[in-house]
Amino acid sequence: MFAALLLASTASAEASNLNFLKDTPMSYIKKRDMDSIKSALVEVLNTKNDGETTRWINEGTGNSVKIDAAMTPESTSHEGEKTCRRVSVVLSAKGQSMNLHPNFCGTGRTDWTLQQR
Q: At the top level of its lineage, which domain of life is listed (predicted)?
């Protein structure tokens, strides 16, 4: 889900040789970071109210680059049994920040799916 968003951005940057993305926080994220932030994001989607910020740091993932994120649900909507949430994610590493605003929808506590725009 969130991993797909990040990996797609990184893969497309490499494929298109978009060097301006080379030193963005996404370029420093390793698999263990991704697993950790994904778990944190699911927790945010499941438990946090709109406007409530959760901080994540990649401590303990084995990455020598400190990466942190601020994740804040921006809005929540309901369509039948489906819940959709827009989340602000601010990733920071090595003095650089990047803002993401993915939308996720799901019907349970573990089936959140990144929505295409």
A: Bacteria
